[in-house]
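Title: Prediction job returns without error message
Component: structure pipeline
Severity: low
Priority: P3
Assignee: unassigned

Description:
Job completed but the reporter wants confirmation the result is attached to the right record. Sequence as submitted:
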Amino acid sequence: MLRSYVNSAKTTVDKSSLSLRRVRSQTRLRESVIQRLLLACALLSIFTTIGIVVMLLVQAAGFFSEVSILDFFTGTKWAPLFQPQHFGVLPLVGGTLLTAGIAILVALPIGLASAIYLSEYARDRVRRVVKPLLEILAGIPTVVYGYFALTFVTPVLQNIFPNMIVFNALSAGLVMGVMIIPMVSSLSEDAMVAVPRSLRDAAYGLGATRLEVATRVVMPAAISGIVAAFILALSRAFGETMIVALAAGSTPKLTLNPLESIQTMTAYIVQISLGETPHGTTEYYTIYAVGLLLFVMTLLMNLFSQWFVRRHRERY
C-alpha cells in the first residue's frame, strides 16, 4: 500500500514536471517569436532610412554631375526653371531659416512658460485638462494652419504693416510657431516633472519663491530635455511644408525682411513635384539636391541634440 502511494506520488511529480517544462518551452517560444518580430520592425525602420538616404544620394549625384557644388552652396540666385539658369541654394536656405527663426521666437517663450506653469504651478486636475487641450494644436492639419495664416493672420498684419504683401514670411512663421508650441511645452514639461522633488523641497527650505525654484533649480536640472525639445521643434519647423507653401509665397529671395515673399526648401520641392518638370532633367534633380541638403541640416541638429543631452544630462 505504501509502495503504491509512493508510485502515485512519483507519477504526479513527473506529470507536474512535464507540464512545467511544456509551459516553459511554450513561453520561450512565444518570447522568441516576439523578439524576432520586434527585431524585424527595428530592421525595417533602419533599412527604410538607409533606402531613403541612398535614393537621395544617387539622385542628387545626377544633379551635381552637371552643376558645380561650389555654385550650389555659394550662389545667391535660385532660378532653375528660367533662362539663364541659376542654382545657388542660399535663397532657399535663407527663407527656411527665416521662417523657422520666427517660429522658434514664438514657440520657445510661450512653450517654455506653459511648461513651467504645468509643472510648477498647476494642480493635477488642472494639468490633466490643460495639457491635452494644448496638445490639440499638434493635431490640426497643417494645411488648415496655412489657410489660417493666409486668410486671417496676413490681413491682420497688413493693418499693422501696410507695406506687407499677401505672401510673406512673417505670417507663415508666426502660425508655424503656434503649431510647434505643443512640442516645446509637452517635452519641456516632461523633463521638468522628471526633476526629483527633493531638489524643490531643498530650495523651498532655503526660502526660495516658486518662480525662483522653477527658473534657478528646475530648469537648470532639466536643461538637457528642454534643449532637446527646442531642437526637435526647430527640426519640425525646418521640415514644415504646407504652411510655407500657402502663406510664404514662392519667390526665392535672399532677404532678412519678413514682410517680403520668400520660398523655403520644402515649398520648392512641392512646386517641382507638381509634375510640370520633365523627369530626368537637371531641373527635376534639383528636388533631390535640395532634399539631401535639408536632410543633412536636420541630421546635424539631431546629432547636436544627442551630444548635448549626453553631456548635460543630470542623473539622480
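Comment from assignee: result matches the submitted record. Residues 73-312 form a domain with the MetI-like fold fold (CATH 1.10.3720.10).
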